[in-house]
Amino acid sequence: MGSGSVGPVTLPPIIAVLGVPGAGKSTQAKAVARGLGGVSASVGDWLRALAAAGDKDAASTVAAGSPITPAQYERFLRHIRDEVPASALVLDGSPRDERHVPVLADALADDGLVFGVLLRLPTGVAESRIQVRRSSAPTDRPDDSTEAAARRIADQTAALTRLAESFEARWPLVTIDATEDESLVTRRILESLPEGWA
């Protein structure tokens, strides 16, 4: 992966939707983006697209279910920084761990606005949801294989605690119960946003 500083840029208000695999990050990121008239961007989808296009580094990460590196996250931010409108940008599942927080901070102008939503989901429920996703689309998510999914859940569950601490040191972060109905989760997220965002 290429490296080099992203450099501070003017971005719209950013809402980071965080959580373990299966927590509904993509569903909620898209719903929140629709509700705000903004766009959602997924580092996972971006990485899988790179892997499908033959990028060896991305393919290795996806196949192994390995954590996304800071260099990969920096590359993702470079990819999206010139493609977002003036409305809200909803980050679907990123930053992934505490190493990505300073990468995001470095990419923002001094007045950049960031708000985090942590979708809380028990491990057993996460595993069950991914099993359902595998059965409905067995070839769509190679990182949903049983072994890779288990690694991703374990890695991200451990990383979320450290991520939350690092994130909250810089920006607001709220926790939402992801076991509730999807529409209710979306409503709770929108209601939790700072005044003027929704």
From TrEMBL:
Top-level enzyme category: transferase
Superkingdom in the source lineage: Bacteria
One Gene Ontology MF term: AMP kinase activity
One protein family per Pfam: AAA_17
Keyword ATP-binding: yes
Keyword annotations: ATP-binding, Kinase, Nucleotide biosynthesis, Nucleotide-binding, Transferase
Subcellular location: Cytoplasm
Catalysed reactions listed for this entry: AMP + ATP = 2 ADP
GO cellular component: cytoplasm
Main location: cytoplasm
The keyword Ubl conjugation belongs to this UniProt entry's keyword annotation: no
EC number, UniProt record: 2.7.4.3
Record-stated family: Belongs to the adenylate kinase family.
Assembly information from the UniProt record: Monomer.
Name this protein carries in UniProt: Adenylate kinase
